[in-house]
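Morning. Coffee machine broken again, so started the prediction first thing and wrote up yesterday's gels while waiting. Chain of 538 residues, entered below exactly as on the submission form.
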Amino acid sequence: MSHSLFFFFASVFCLLRFGQHVMGQDTFDWNQITPSDSLAWVPCNTNFECARLTVPLDYKNPNVSTAAIALIRLPAGVPTNSSDYRGPLILGAGGPGGSGVDLVLANADLARAIIGPQFDLVGFDGRGISRSTPRASFFPTQAERAQFPAYLRSLNASEDAFGRAYADFTLQSSLARARDDGSLRFTNTESTARDMLKIVQAHGQKKVQYWGFSIGSVLGTTFAEMFPDKIERLVIDGVMDPEDYYSTSWLTNLHDTNQTWNIFLDGCVAAGPSACALYEPTAAAIQAKVDAFSKQLKTRPIAAITSLSSSTPSYHVVDYSMLRQTIFTALYTPYASFQPLATALHQLSLGNASALYEMSGLFASPYQCPANAAEAAQEEFSNLLDGQVAIQCNDGAAISTDFNDVKAHYEKLCATSPWCDVLLPRLTCLGWPKNSKDNVALSFTANTSFPMLAVSNTADPVTPHANGVKVSGNFPGSVLLTQDSPGHTSIAAPSTCTLLHIAAYFINGTLPASGTICPVDDGAELFPSGSSATQSAS
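Came back before lunch.
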């Protein structure tokens, strides 16, 4: 596996975990494009083409108002009149609310190395997200947004942590309700599935080709249920349980999380002190060390400062919540993150929090007004977590706002995993506007026009293997491809076997044999030897 493809695996997780853009720069002014009913592509960002497609805001009343969907594509490397041309392949980010434009902009060249030049590689921002309008936003200014908690706190961080989260998200829903211009309820997966069909038809195609990651799998299964005769190729990679998702339960996601963490512990022991800075002779001893400084951080957080910029230092207090979020996020990309995580945790055990703070990505920067028109345009189309909240809460069934009911559900989640304190999507829907839940009935048992390919890892921290077994078993003819690795989605680990099967499926329609298990490539190590890992303070 080449270094560039390995970097691809390491770089995409922010789009899957947070729906945020992490690499590649969109320098295009999207205001230059007038939305239209057809895909009027214009050159953008050097090798790409951009468009804004007009779709009905409300598909039940299509003539009342419209939304504009932002798209980007890397055109196929073969002529469109060639027999090799295979049409558009849509790449779907996670989140929910991840930007498909950012996903393609940052990684299209590397995705092309996997599946070849036959396809236009297409990404779109779902309705309410980033460059698509109307955009979901609960705050009229970025200055006001900066007052809201910057990241999700651990629900076990303190005696009042759960109560504070309850209050924070109740407040957020109140703001969403008060500032809704009437478009908010249309930010949902059912409408996005209809938008995706419009995108395919605007390309002159009748059926969709789609590779959806993480919660992008919910869009894939929803599309398959709504339009089973419109499937040309459909890969769901890192499979969510759609029934659990639409019920707003979120009870199945964490079943394999501790397994992923245990792989970190065992891998550190096996790697030894030269490759794993956190090394102890046993996994239990490493766990005890982590437990010790985790407990200390609950009452004695540590100050950290790091010069991430030559002109602006960044600083923060590293507390228990930041530690938990940083470890949890590292579980998404073990082959890229386990070794630096071990180093950061070791330094933290010595009282130095800077490495963990830098790894967290949770940098505290005061809001600054845009300096020019270009910066203002970038802010106008930035990705907001508001869109993620809107999608999952509009999709899901209404939940009780009674504090005791909410706490009881949390305790039910904690019975499934010790990582229940850091994955809180259900809480974000507390007091969500009571819009009519008139979504189509979904059973997720459709007989699709071409069989679906599901891909699941054996130790995925947020989309457990059992989800892939369940969903693939409900769609006749579909096949589950298992990747024997830790991490979130197939791109979390280098596996040529997995990529060859995915490429064969898209190019030739060839499904792997039932029960196929792909290993990680020889030579791939969670804690590469010859590294600079050290147990001395730095």
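The chain has 18 helices and twelve strands. Going to sketch it on the whiteboard this afternoon.
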